[in-house]
Amino acid sequence: MSQDVEHLRLLSIFHYILAGLAGLCSFFPAIYLVMGIAMLSGWIEGDKGEPAPAVVGWIFVAIALIGILLTLAYASLLALAGRFLSKRKHRTFCFVVAGLSLLFAPLGTALGVFTIIVLMRDSVRLLFEPGAPEGSGVPGV
Length: 141
Fold this sequence. Notes:
The protein is mainly alpha-helical. The protein has helices at residues 2-25, 30-41, 54-87, 91-101, 107-120, 122-127. The protein contains six helices and no strands. The two termini are 13 Å apart. 23% of the residues are buried.
């Protein structure tokens, strides 16, 4: 049981680390945001010295905002899953976040696989039961 508790503790830490990295990655779409704003304000010119079409600028802004919001949402879900793993609550939520992490290659894929493997164990499932105390895997002991 102590090995399961240690694995959950490590997974929780790694979820926090990946949440931080994902939060940093949310700044990358800001390049598109700046380009879109530059197109809308006329700083970037088209082929014949004319300003770029406004619709192109709005597309860049929309893509950037969607990318930023999705990445920040993913980072928030990772941090929340890390919290739930440390508290041993909401096992299904942790499974769902682990499944989403599989798409964030290569670090998210590794973390997602290991999280799913650990959460599939019967002894870990017992740790998530409502009556299980902090240091034990047996409910009500």
